[in-house]
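Researcher: Please generate the 3D structure of the following complex. Treat every line as part of one assembly.
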Amino acid sequence: MAVTLADVATRAGVSAATVSRVLSGNYPVAGATRTRVMRAVEELQYVVNGPASALAAATSDLVGVLVNDIADPFFGIIASAVQSEMGAVGQGGGGQKLAVVCNTGGSTESELSYLTHLQRQRAAAVVLTGSGVEDEKHGAALATRLRRLAAGGTRIVLCGRPPLAPEQQDTHQGPEREQPRPPQENGRDGEGRADSGDGIVTLAFDNRGGSRRLTEHLLSLGHRSIGYVTGPSDRTTTRDRLEGHRLAIRARAPELLADAEQFTVHGGAYDRSSGYDGALELLRRVPGLTAVLAANDTVALGVCAALRDQGLRIPEDVSVAGFDDLPFSADASPTLTTVRIPLHDAGARAGRLALGRETPPPGGVATVRTELMARGSTAPPPGPRG
Amino acid sequence: MAVTLADVATRAGVSAATVSRVLSGNYPVAGATRTRVMRAVEELQYVVNGPASALAAATSDLVGVLVNDIADPFFGIIASAVQSEMGAVGQGGGGQKLAVVCNTGGSTESELSYLTHLQRQRAAAVVLTGSGVEDEKHGAALATRLRRLAAGGTRIVLCGRPPLAPEQQDTHQGPEREQPRPPQENGRDGEGRADSGDGIVTLAFDNRGGSRRLTEHLLSLGHRSIGYVTGPSDRTTTRDRLEGHRLAIRARAPELLADAEQFTVHGGAYDRSSGYDGALELLRRVPGLTAVLAANDTVALGVCAALRDQGLRIPEDVSVAGFDDLPFSADASPTLTTVRIPLHDAGARAGRLALGRETPPPGGVATVRTELMARGSTAPPPGPRG
DNA sequence: CTGTTAGCGCTTTCAC
DNA sequence: GTGAAAGCGCTAACAG
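Model: Done. Output below.
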C-alpha cells in the first residue's frame, strides 16, 4: 500500500498536480504528458487513495441503498435496479458512483447505524427502500437524521415507503397532533418546489390502492369469508395494504366489517412461515373460509402450503392472493393472483433521482401505480356445502 | 457539512487530540473530560469525517461483498450472513465494519471495476461469492488484482467458487500447462501454512459431489433418460455440477455416456426462463425423457413450468431436481428434490474469515459439504408406455 | 498547459 | 491525562 501520486509524478517527470489532472480527466493536459503519466501509472500499478481524494475534494462516490432484507427478491430487484443506473462501469476515472447495499434486517438501530456510517463517508446519496417502521420515536429520529444528511448535500430518496412526516416544530406552537401523514394523492403540498423543500424525494408505492382492487376482485368473485394474513404490524406497508383491504370491504360489503378483526391474523414477518401459521390460524377461526389474502407473495406461498397440507385445493376450495408480483409468483402452481409493483422501474427511477439525473416530482412525492394481476389462484368460492 | 473535530474541541474546551481519543475510545481519558466531550459532540451533532479519518489512520471499515445477482436469493442469503457477522451495530465508535454488497451482474468488467473501487477505498476485506467466470484472460487479471489487494492488507475470501489458479510464474520457466486447477480434496497444498500463502482464503462448495449424488439418486430410482439443463457455460459452478453429473453416469451407467451430450441443454443463465426453454428443448430432443436435472432451483422451477404447460405431471411423468435448496424449494408443489448448500453458514464463516475472527483452514482452502434433499419432485420413472 | 502552494479533517507520536 | 505539531495523499486555486 505504498505507491502514491507523488511517486507517479516523479516517475513521469511531472508534478503531482498534473498527474491528478490526468487522472480526473476534467482538465486540459497535453497529449504527450498524458501518455507519459498513464504509462507511469500503469508501471507502478497506481491506484488512487479514495479517502485522501475524498477528503481533498470533499466529495464521495458512495451511494447507499438500505434494504430491510437482502435475501428477499423484493429488495434484490429494487437494489439491482438502483445499481443499474449508477452508470457504465468505467475503468476508474469518471464520476461513476458506487452503489452499495446495506441490509438493515428491518431493525431500526441498524438503519440508523448504517446512516451514520454513510454520513461519515459523506455519501453522495442514500436510497431507503421498502417499508418504514411505524414508531413515533424512531420515525422522529430517522427524519431528523435524514434531514441533516440532506442538508449536508446528500441526496435522499425514499423508495417504497411513505414520505417523511412534516418537520417537527421545535418552537412548540400548539397541541396540533392530527394528521400525522401528509396527503397522498395531492402532489402540490410542496407549493411547486422541486421537492418537499428539504431535498428528500419520495417514490411511494400505491399499496393501499392495489390492495383495495385486490379485495374488490375477490368480492366480485363472490367471496364473503376472506381471511387476511398481515405483515409485521409496525410497518407502513402492512398498514397501507390492510387499509386498502378494509376500504374495499367498507365500500362494497360493509356487512363484513364487523368480522374484519376476527378474519385478520397478524403475521410476524414477511416470510413463508408467517403465511403458513397464519393460514392455519384462520382455518381455526373461520369455519367457512373461502379466500386468504396475504401480506405479500412470499407469505402467500406459505399460506398455500398450509392449505394444501390441510387437504384443501387452490383455488377450488380456497382462493389465495399475494402482493408484489415477484418473479416466482407467475410460476407457482397454481399461478398466483397478486398485485404487481413495477419494482425494477421504481428502483431505476430512485437511482436516477439519487444521482440527480432526473428532476424530482412536484412536491417531492410521486406515487408508483400498482396493478392487479388476476391469475390462477383465485376463483369463485365453492358452492354451498362444497 | 461543517462541524469538525476542532469545533467540538473548542466547545468542550479541550484539544482536538483529546476529542479524537475520546471518540476512538482506545486511550485513557479522564472521566470528566470524556463526559464534557460527549456532550459537545451531542450538542453539535458531530459526525466523524470518514475520509479524513481513514486517511489519517490508513485504515477503513469497509468490507465489500461481490455477488453475481443480488436479486437471486442464493446471493442474498450469503450476503446477509456475511453482514450478520460484521458485529453488533454500535452507535459509531467501535471497530465495527460496514459490509456493502456490490452487484456485478456476472460481468467480469463490473467485477474488476468494483474491486478497483474497493481498492481505492482501502477496503478492509473483500468477499467474492458464487461462480467465477472461466475465462483465461479474466482469470489472470482477477488473480493479479486479488493478490495485489491481499498484499496491500485487504483480506480476500472466496465463497462458493474454486480457489485461484496458482500464481503465474513471471519468470517463464517451462511449458508446464497441465492441471490448471489446484487439487480439491487435498487440503495440504499450502504446506501447512495458514492460507495459500498469499492471504487469500477459499470456501469452495462441493458442487461436484452434490451433483454426483443427485444423479445417483435418479439413477437408482431407475431413470435412464435424464436430461440436464446447465447454467451459463463459462461459470465454474456450471462446470462442476455438470462434471458431478457425468461422473455419476460414468460410474453407475456408462452405457448412457454416449447420449450425454445429446441430453444436455446449455442454459444461458441461472434463471427461470432458461429452465423453461431448456425443458422444451429436451422434450424435443429426447422422446422418452423421464427426468430433468436443472442447474439450480430457479432453473428447476422454469423446467417444472414448461413440463406442466406440456401437460406432463411431476413426478409421475417426469422427475425434476434442482440445486441449492433455496427456501422456496421446500414450498414448491411438489416439493423440490435438490442439493442443499448451507449458504447461511458458509456466508457467516466467510464473514468471520474476512474479519480475521476465524483462523483460515489449512492450505487456505475448505470445501463446504452439500447434502442431497430427496423430496416430492422425484420418483421412479413411469412404467413402459405409461 | 504545468508547477507551487495551501490546505481538507483527522490520528498520532512526542513532550509536558 | 492532555496539548502541540507533523503529516496521511490528494485536489484546487493561483501563478507562471
